[in-house]
Amino acid sequence: MSEVLNAVASRFESGATLTHESAKAAFEAGLQRIAAGATGVDCAPLAQFDSSALAVLFAWERAAQARGMAFEIVNLPAGLASLAQAYGVDTLLCRPELAL
């Protein structure tokens, strides 16, 4: 049970907006959290986004992988998942709900 609690505690929230205008700041903030040991992001608060959100999510995944850590993306909004599918990159997102 403590492993589940620790996994949730090591996730950070995406914030409500992740667009071209906010991408650089969000990216930097996420990198700081990953450097501090975060192993995932909860996208539940994400309400406004564009394709920049996908770029940031992929960059966070790469940063975690470079540190030898798995990175989970949870609660991805349906609209962002659809955008990823339209671009053909949906299978690249590490999302536990898609794992078989």
Report a brief summary of the structure.
With 100 residues, the protein is of the alpha/beta class. The chain has helices at 2-9, 23-35, 51-66, 78-87; strands at 11-13, 17-18, 40-42, 48-49, 72-74. It has one domain: STAS domain (Transcription Regulator spoIIAA, 2-Layer Sandwich), CATH 3.30.750.24.
Let me know the largest β-sheet: 3 strands, parallel
CATH architecture descriptor name: 2-Layer Sandwich
Mean pLDDT level = 87
Give the termini separation. Answer: 22 Å
Radius of gyration: 13 Å
Q: Percent of residues in helical segments?
A: 40-55%
From the structure provided, what is the oligomeric state, counting identical versus distinct chains?
single chain
Classified in CATH, the superfamily is STAS domain
Task: Specify the CATH class.
Answer: Alpha Beta
DSSP summary: helix tally: 4
Helix-and-strand structural type: alpha/beta
- The fraction of residues assigned to DSSP E strands is 5-15%
In the residues, how many domains can be counted? Answer: 1
Quote the CATH topology.
Answer: Transcription Regulator spoIIAA
Label the overall shape. Answer: globular
Number of strands: 5
Strand order of the biggest β-sheet = 1-3-5
**Pattern of helices and strands:** HEEHEEHEH
**Unreliable residue stretches:** 1-6, 96-100
